[in-house]
Design brief:
The protein is mainly alpha-helical. The protein has one domain (3-59). The chain has helices at residues 3-29, 33-59. The radius of gyration is 14 Å and the shape is elongated.
């Protein structure tokens, strides 16, 4: 996979992570703790994937 494509995927993952974080914050503010916790878990997983992908891109 080309470096440019990996970089693009990294940007897409980061955008998705941020959007999920915003939704988690909204659910938390609305008192829907269960949904907020689940969304934060997804956000953390995406952040981990983003760090791994960033390491791959920078190691090339």
């Amino acid at each position: 996979m080309a470096d440019a494509e990996l970089s693009s995927l990294s940007s897409t993952l980061d955008d998705l992570r941020r959007r999920i974080e915003v939704r988690a914050e909204a659910h938390q503010a609305a008192g829907d703790e269960e949904m907020a916790v689940d969304l934060y878990e997804v956000e953390r997983s995406l952040a981990t994937a983003l760090r791994r992908l960033s390491r791959l891109v920078s190691s090339r």
